[in-house]
Amino acid sequence: MTSLLRHHDFRQLWVAETASHVGTQVVGVALPVVAVAVLSATPLEMGVLTALETAAFLLIALPAGAWVDRWRRQRVLVRADTVRALALATIPVAYLLDALTLGQLYVVAAVVGTATVFFDVAYQSYLPSIVDRDQLTDGNGKLEISRAVAQVAGPGLTGVLLRVLAAPVLLVVTAAGYLLSAFLVSRIRHVDVVPERSTRRRLREEIAEGLGFVVRHRLLRRIVACTGTGNLFGAITGTLLALYVLRTLGLSESTLGLVLSAGAAGGLAGAFTAAPLGRLIGDGRAIPLSAVAFGAFAALTPLASVVDGAARVVLLVAGGIGISWAVVVYNVLQVSFRQRLCPPRLLGRMNASVRFIVFGTMPLGGLLGGVLGTAIGVVPALWVAVAGQLLAAVPVVVSPLIGMRDLPRELDETARPEVSPATPG
Question: Positive or negative CA dihedral for 178, 326, 47, 302?
């Protein structure tokens, strides 16, 4: 069997996916910095921006999954990357012309968020059509580690670049990354086959099938409840972090960049330790333990407000490293689990359904962060986020996962009834 590293089509997809996800993470940091440092956004305006970045997951993720299962996924990926590149390129142009406004930032955030929904659903569903069945585990592992590393390396890279480039200009680099991704995907030789029109059912029925697979599974529904709740409260922190570091703590943009760069180290460690940790204590147990660790490390961010000087940076860096490590371990294990479990024909709809639930809470969290930051202050709002992130771990801690070493692989798990936490399944 040919190694995936020598597999032409897989290499194109892997590098393209990495470039695209790094770009998405850079945008997630650069846009808030533009809003705070260039446009003097208020907490409420930051909440609106965060909500628009992720609103598409709530509004169109479910039909996007059904559409992706009907379309050629290569074309979806190329068009999504091209749209994101063009939308982002308008920001540095407007900045150089001294015409940049929050309204434009809102529109770009919404457009990029919509294209990201289609890209995310399509790339995870494309792999089974370009590699052999017995290469799926290896391929999914490489793509998932790449995505996980991008989640933390992207913000870290942004932190480094913010020391030498203005945030609006940095988005030129991001747009170029998206265009590189589109080019690489276009070089994939395999032509994926779409279902015949005569075999299609009503869109609502196809959406319900994917959503039903997720919510009826006794373990998947607990995992998505944990992830969705964690993202709800994590979005509060994401909304207020730039305001907190730059205004409340009075630190510089370069220090914010340092904090983000240091956090990348935790994510890289998580990407390489997730599988060994799963083997050591069991994949099932590692999921709830990493969820608890995420909430615990999150507390270090608001704690930085009660100390002075270098101790503030130390706590922010330590919190960033710990959060990134826990998030990546959790994501590598739970994403790999659900990919192994799902029938190939449902991959697009399953991925879309999960994203609808777990990312659909983020725009709500963004708005909540803006409201709380305005009403009770930035630091109290961050403590609310910490409490919520600890609460998010409850569905997986009080579940069969805590007593399981190995996660089930059978596709008929959706038919099994809920069991008590003391009974490993």
Answer: negative
For the CA atoms of 337, 338, 341, 344, what is the dihedral angle to 10 degrees? Answer: -130
| Start-end of H helices in 34-135 | 43-59, 61-70, 73-96, 102-126
**pLDDT attached to residue 306:** 92
Determine the Cα–Cα distance for residues 121 and 10; give it in Å rounded to an integer.
17
Which CATH number belongs to the domain containing residue 257 in this structure? 1.20.1250.20
Tell me the residue range of the domain where 113 lies.
4-187+202-415
Does residue 389 form part of some domain?
yes
Residue 107, pLDDT above cutoff 70: yes
Residue with tokens 């826990």: 326
- Domains held by the chain: number: 1
Residue 194 lies in a domain: no
Answer whether 347's CB lies under 8 Å from 217's CB. Answer: no
Q: Is residue 262 part of a domain?
A: yes
86, two tokens: 């063009």
User: How many Cα neighbours within 13 Å face the side chain of 257?
Assistant: 18
pLDDT per position as a tens digit, 284-331: 899 999 999 999 999 999 999 999 888 999 999 999 899 988 988 898
Count Cβ neighbours within 10 Å for each residue of 256-266 and write b for 16 or more, e otherwise: bbbbbbbbbbb
Q: Is 129 exposed, middle or buried (0-12, 13-18, 19+ CB in 10 A)?
A: middle
Contact 105, 91 (CB under 8 A): yes
- What's the pLDDT tens digit per position in 190-249? 877 666 665 656 777 888 888 888 888 888 899 999 999 999 999 999 889 988 998 899
What's the pLDDT band for 387 if we cut at 50, 70, 90? very high
Is residue 423 domain-resident? no
Average pLDDT of the chain is: 83
